[in-house]
Amino acid sequence: MDAIDVDVPALDRAHVWHPYASVPPQVPVHQVVRASGVRLTLADGRELVDGMSSWWAAIHGYGHPRLDGALTAQLADMAHVMFGGLTHEPAVQLARTLAEMTGLPKVFLADSGSVAVEVAIKMAFQFTGRHRLLTVRGGYHGDTFGAMAVCDPVNGMHHLFSGALPQHVFAPRPPADHDEAYLAELTETVARHASELAAIIVEPVVQGAGGMHFYHPAHLRRLRELADEHGLLLIADEIATGFGRTGELFGCDHAGIRPDIMCLGKALTGGYLSLAATLCTERVAAGIGTLMHGPTFMGNPLAAAVANASLGLLAERPWREEVARIERGLRAGLAGAAHAPGVKDVRVLGAIGVVETLEPVDVGRVQDTVMRHGVWLRPFGRLIYTMPPYATGDDDLARITAAMTAAVADIGRDA
């Protein structure tokens, strides 16, 4: 069928089920025909600055020649081959690079972030022989059942499945400031449940889709200490925080700690293909033996090749300076929203800017407002937020914050 004859919006309404949506979706879906640099071009000709990095993944922007070239070159050799009993250079190179970046020498390549978390949980269960985890409220770790069970039971988007999920231990959400009373409560909670726990699992310093909360690194350091004191594993879910997003290469770097198991994803391929990884120490790998997991597309050569190119590009570009510049721009551009009617909080860390409202936002209305300002954002709950590509220039960054401020002003008129 010739593409010119396809009514994409009509076919979408008829057949496609979008994420976190009903069918047909209640919020309009917009057709993208091209993505280049930090811009999305819609079918109606509008260009939008992408303030979301395609759900935090496209850190280099779209259509980067290095990443395009890596895919094209790899395609000339092979697109895919099974990873059971076979290996290939792109996957081996990627594993070595990730091991060097993290200090975790054993690398299991997975399909997606949720699967990486499932693998981490399996590792912890197999290593310890115990089957309960401790986490903190406000977290989000994915949409598969093991991952859902350690998401916030109220704000983690999975309350509908609460009766079907394993019951884990939840400590209170870590506060933004260093809090000795919280550290004491954390210490008591871990001690009370230590004998039944396999591991502690948290998102380091930044909690993502559970509410975009930032917390003090001291609380992460204490979790590392408590894991060591009680013989537990520490799992760091760095899927959203990895590869520079928070201003450090990994969220754990803010606290100066290394986990026993780490989950990576999202920005791993620069937003080109789905790929994730679960890494662990030599001790954990030796204690597990045979890990009972094996995705069909594990170690996909195309994904591994573009991940190698993306990590190489990240190592070469001044990402620390870029993220620091974005942080300054977000702080300046969102400062005026802090005291606006209907706003609870404005917070910024690295290349993450968040406006938290008092009431849940009307997603369609907010998107209409920001799109009129030439920006693409995807709010949820009470959050209007941005995680732009590192390549976003100052003018485009100002456009993003102006669009967010306009959305806040629109909400304020109803407050």
TrEMBL record:
Keywords: Aminotransferase, Biotin biosynthesis, Cytoplasm, Pyridoxal phosphate, S-adenosyl-L-methionine, Transferase. Pyridoxal 5'-phosphate binds at residues 113-114, 237, 295-296. It catalyses: (8S)-8-amino-7-oxononanoate + S-adenosyl-L-methionine = S-adenosyl-4-methylsulfanyl-2-oxobutanoate + (7R,8S)-7,8-diammoniononanoate. The record marks 20 as: Participates in the substrate recognition with KAPA and in a stacking interaction with the adenine ring of SAM. Its cofactor is pyridoxal 5'-phosphate. InterPro entries: Aminotrans_3, Aminotrans_3_PPA_site, BioA, PyrdxlP-dep_Trfase, PyrdxlP-dep_Trfase_major, PyrdxlP-dep_Trfase_small. Its EC number is 2.6.1.62. PANTHER family: ADENOSYLMETHIONINE-8-AMINO-7-OXONONANOATE AMINOTRANSFERASE. This is Adenosylmethionine-8-amino-7-oxononanoate aminotransferase. It comes from Planomonospora sphaerica. The gene is bioA.
